[in-house]
Amino acid sequence: MGSDLSPLVVTLWVLNVLVDSGGQLAFKAAASEPGERDGMERWRFMLARPWLWVGVACYVAEFLVWLAFLSLVPLSDGVLLGSINIVAIMILGRVLFKERLAPMRVAGIVLVSIGVAVVGLH
Predict the structure, then answer these.
(1) pLDDT by residue (tens digit) across 89-121?
(2) Which of 24, 78, 118, 119 is placed for a possible disulfide with 73 were both Cys, Cβ 3.0 to 4.6 Å?
(3) Transmembrane ranges (predicted)?
(4) CA distance to 20, 47, 62, per residue, from 59 (Å)
(5) Res 122: pLDDT
(6) How far apart are CA 51 and CA 56, in angstroms?
(7) DSSP-assigned letter for residue 3
(8) What is the pLDDT of residues 1-23, one digit of tens each?
């Protein structure tokens, strides 16, 4: 697949990582607001948060970008390359939300990154 990584494929791949990660982070931001809200009150509060709607918009964009990406690469390669989203989200979760990266998670990040590199270079 390495020779098949045209500029358009790479652009769609990077855009997919950005909008998918952005959507996940926006949903986390919408759900992480402090407060003692429960049940429907919590849901109403989240629905009023702009972060929730940023997340929805990112997912709509990600859907369209993913379809375009998959139209250019085999599904098996696309799904494996898409796994880098997990790495981006874990790292950004650490940076933005101070989430803990335990040693096993760091090992997972390294292994997924190696796997994506192998698929991208083959």
Answers:
(1) 999 999 999 999 999 999 999 998 998 888 777
(2) 78
(3) 51-73, 79-97, 104-121
(4) 6, 16, 5
(5) 67
(6) 9
(7) G
(8) 545 679 999 999 999 999 999 99
Q: Which amino acid is at 102?
A: A
What torsion, rounded to 10 degrees, do the Cα atoms 50, 53, 59, 62 define?
-60
Contacts 24+ apart (CB under 8 A), 58-61: 58/19, 58/20, 58/22, 58/23, 58/26, 59/19, 59/20, 59/23, 61/19
The whole-angstrom separation of Cα 60 and Cα 108 is 28
Residues near 114 by beta carbon (within 8 Å), at least 6 away in sequence: none
- Concatenate the DSSP letters of all residues of 40-90 into one string: HHHHHHHHHSHHHHHHHHHHHHHHHHHHHHHTTS-HHHHHHHHTHHHHHHH
How far apart CA 28 and CA 33 sit, in angstroms, is 9
Q: What is the pTM of this model?
A: 0.83
Q: Does the CA dihedral 76-79-84-86 come out positive or negative?
A: negative
Residue 21: its pLDDT value, please?
96
